[in-house]
Amino acid sequence: MKLITIILSIAISLLLAGCTGQTGAPTSNTKAPGAKLKIGFSMDTLKEERWQKDRDLFVKRAEELGAEVIVQSADGNDETQVNQAQALLLQGVDVLVVIPHNADVAGAIVEAAKKQNVPVVSYDRLIRNSAPDLYISFDNEKVGELQAKYLLERAPKGNYILIGGAPTDNNANIVRAGQMKVLQPAIDRGDIKIVADQWAKDWLAEEALKHTENALTQNANDVAAVVASNDSTAGGVVQALLQKGLAEKVVVSGQDADLAALQRVVAGTQSMTVYKPVSRLATKAAEAAVSLAKGEKPPTDRSVNNGRVDVPFIYLEPIPVDKENVDATVIKDGYQKREDVYKKP
Ligand code: GAL
Q1: With contact defined as beta carbons under 8 Å apart, do 42 and 110 qualify?
Q2: How many domains are there within the chain?
Q3: Ligand 1 probe mutation, 47, 48, 276, most atoms within 8 A of CB
Q4: Are residues 208 and 325 in the same domain?
Q5: Among the atoms of ligand 1, which is closest to the Cα of residue 170?
Q6: Tens digit of each residue's pLDDT (9 = 90 or more) over 220-246
Q7: What is the pLDDT of residue 6?
Q8: Which of 6, 123, 205, 308 could form a disulfide with 235 if both were Cys (CB 3.0 to 4.6 A apart)?
Q9: Closest ligand 1 atom to Cα of 47
Q10: Are residues 165 and 284 in the same domain?
């Protein structure tokens, strides 16, 4: 019964969105002079700490620019995200900013928005097989390269475990490509060996924990490095290593500069993380969204192909962080507080 209700509501909202599209829903072109611009922000999840920062910084900048933001989080559910995006379109948003849970499924959101002449920004993660107006993100290949390079310098020989992110997230695949670019020559030389190659559904720590436990058992704990693709997966990896008394002996990467990860970095159980100054992403995205809503073309750096079109791309640089430079980067920027990072558990 519940499922029928959900399906019906999606069908009705799709239908209504289609109708309003045909009859000319309020768009940037028809906006009454002086009316506030409305931005729909459709987020995959708010579970990881970084996304809460993304939301707060994005809303702050958009409001400074005189726009109103309606935020929705889909809790990692594709159906919910499509449904929420349809609802945002029905509310007459002037621009839709989407962090897709699933790169392919979210193409339907872009199509629906296009029917209403509402521009779409693909935020942090690329939406595939559709034509978003803009993609804004950090260089995800570089994220993977920085992780692998750091680990390889500290563990130039031995067995490696790879823990990828969500296979449904385009970023996870690009990060892996960056990691392999650095690791492949060492594999070819016979210096390192990939003994496990796994992906963590929805970037979940418990998935990473399970994969690491299995890989350690299968290799009699003979592991030099774990290439964890982000901080939540690194959390699962470190838990598995702690159980076996291997934390601090095995080098582990991460991504996001989450508080828990930085605490592990200063404690020595996680070797590094990749800091992506989210304030730059959120601020630039809010500015670009407002300009798209006004019918302008925001400046971009390059383009990236999403399987259908070349999407204009605003590109941002990630920064590797370890014990040595945590103060000079994450803490200096105010991304995390010094007393929190160095707090004893
Ligand atoms: C990725 C994002 C990472 C990480 C991950 C899990 O798409 O680039 O920063 O947060 O999702 O949410």
Answers
A1: no
A2: 2
A3: 48
A4: yes
A5: 7
A6: 999 999 999 999 999 999 999 999 999
A7: 36
A8: 205
A9: 12
A10: no
